[in-house]
Batch of 3 targets.
Target 1
Amino acid sequence: MGLCYNGSMPKEDSWDLSTEQERLNWAWLAGLMDGEGSIQITCRSRQDRISPEFSLRLQINMTDPSTVRHVRSLTHCGSIRKRRVSAGRKEQFEWQAKQRQAAGILRRCLPYLVTKKREAEIALQFIDLVSLYKGRNTPLPPGEIARRQALTEALALLHTRGHKPTKLPPFGPKMKPPGLPNGRGA
């Protein structure tokens, strides 16, 4: 089930899902993500950057470290850390993967996700947008920032209580976000 070897991602078509054990591993991980996982797109502005920095993060928090170690051994990527907790609470351990690693995992889990399927789809649309702009020293066009912000907000909306999934617009690199005449920005 390995995804990352020495920090690099193999091509998707090289992932072997032909064995039943591989499919079971991805289904197990998808179930864990549905119940205990979190899919986030964060945005932060820094003074040393021209454009805001958007980032995809996938994480699982558990009180049993063996579960997050098992996730790490199955995916061969991500990191594990011990989280600070309030006095009187059990220790928590967090596994997380970012950007392309997270996207690779979400692509393999997508057929098995239920609760977080729409979140995964938005995250994958986001990573497709990010892959179009490779340069870190080049400012993002306003339209690109607007598209990333729209996906960030769409994902945040899914995290709100009482949300009805049918009200979300399907944003993507080939679709026009509201308010942008040509879908590419100014």
Target 2
Amino acid sequence: MIKNANPDILSVALSAPKQEKWIYRYYKELGVPVSIGIGVTFEFYVNDPVLKMACERLPDGEPLASQPTISRFENALSRTDLYRIAEVFLDIFIESYDEPPEAIILDIDDTDDATHGHQQLALFNAFHNNYCYMPIHIYEGKSGKLITTVLRPGKRPTGEQIVSILKRVVGKIREAWPEKGILLRGDSYYSCPAVYEFCDEEEIKTQNNKIYS
């Protein structure tokens, strides 16, 4: 995977001296011009007096948050927290309009977010040929504004999963602008029976009786 990416710089975070041994063993095989061991780097940064002052802390005060602390913070988020974060994106989108738009175009698609390591729910995706997450992004088609994004495992969503996201998005938009029309656009993967049925029930327009792509 590293050789296929053909990087100019490779950062290796395995802690010292394990990372140095790994670099020495594989640097010729990988052919990367520059390899850098960055393990335990955070432990040096947390006590750096300049960084402390940049964070409005005393230079001789308590250490800054370390990498393990940040990891614990990230893993402390619950499913409810993640759902509320996705809702915040939607609230920001709605509040970005001084006046209601003429109509809303929902452009929906997923993309691969490559992972490196053993992150939970990172799966191998044969189409993208890597281990990744597959977040769903929804943008407003006319303005290009982000409506929301949802982090997902590295596989394409089912029709029911697509609809569960659209229900929340459409519900919020209809609360703000109940009279405005909505058009859904997506590639052929999103042209599935569950999505068609949802569009019919919610009177969401499609192009030529199909999801416009």
Target 3
Amino acid sequence: MPRKCSVIGCRGNYEARKGEHADVNKVSVFRFPKDECRKEQWLHRIPEELRSSEITDDMIVCKKHFESCFVICDMTCYRPDGSSFTFARGIPVLAPDEVPTLFHNTPSYLSTPLPPKSKAPSDRRAVVAARDDKRLKEWLDSDCITDFDDFSTRVSEKSTDLPNVWIALTKDDLILFVLIINIVSSLVPSIAVSFKVWHDMHVERFDEERQRNSSELAWLSHSGTARVY
């Protein structure tokens, strides 16, 4: 029979009463820390009326008195290629610095769940970066263009959203975007930048009269074809 919980009134690993399932009280247990300071922390957390008057090194506390998020029941191992696999531990272990805080069938004031631990600044930044990356991916996926007809339809729907200095011209086999400068000044209006999106979704960019290298469009294209609008 596994060792019984030392918290007074707890039936962790005690024999089942008449009419109860044989394993109703079976539960994992944890020894008191050997470190005196940590041991005192455990004793301080256990209400005095639930502690034995005789404190020994053999005392244990069962899983019922620890918050589930601090009881580690799984283990993750990493292969040489970087992949991983997770499996159930034969014997659960406690997270570092965990203390007993839950005492069931007692007044609520005797149970004092620990407040959530604050994350380190680097961890918080990592969480924010991961969230931003996820939002960006979702936005890119939702704004992905399937073909030229789809793109042409979106241009027609959003043409009124373009700044006044941009003009979009739609033809059967291409769509031309033109940026005109000096429209409201006394200087001669001229074309500063233009884009051609061909029927095969190939994109060309021009600065005044010079065509730019297609590699410069990698941020809005994929394998030389337009991706998002």
